């Protein structure tokens, strides 16, 4: 039989608990600050005719986020512009999902 281990008294347990140093409190990080983007909320005539109606229908992958990156417009304006291009028949939807719609250029063979 193994030798009996002597039980610690309550005072000894309390002293052992108090002897352990307090750990430092975790500091909260400041968090990363994103730079504020100043995207346009309306098209000007030059951007609408030159960029939207000529450049965008020629690209293979057309999404609202791609328009936001390229034209520096906000998301709701990009979605409205894509709806208009679709109604004109310049682009066609590839994948339709409630959060993101993916378009591609409309080819003559598709019509």
UniProtKB/TrEMBL annotation:
GO CC annotations, alphabetized: ribonucleoprotein complex; ribosome
Gene3D superfamilies in alphabetical order: 3.30.63.20
Region (Disordered): 1-31
Bias-annotated ranges (Basic residues): 22-31
Protein family: Belongs to the eukaryotic ribosomal protein eS25 family.
Lineage top rank: taxon: Eukaryota
Pfam families xref list: Ribosomal_S25 (PF03297)
Lineage: Eukaryota, Sar, Stramenopiles, Ochrophyta, Eustigmatophyceae
Keywords recorded for this protein, A-Z: Ribonucleoprotein, Ribosomal protein
Protein name: 40S ribosomal protein S25
Protein species of origin: Nannochloropsis salina CCMP1776
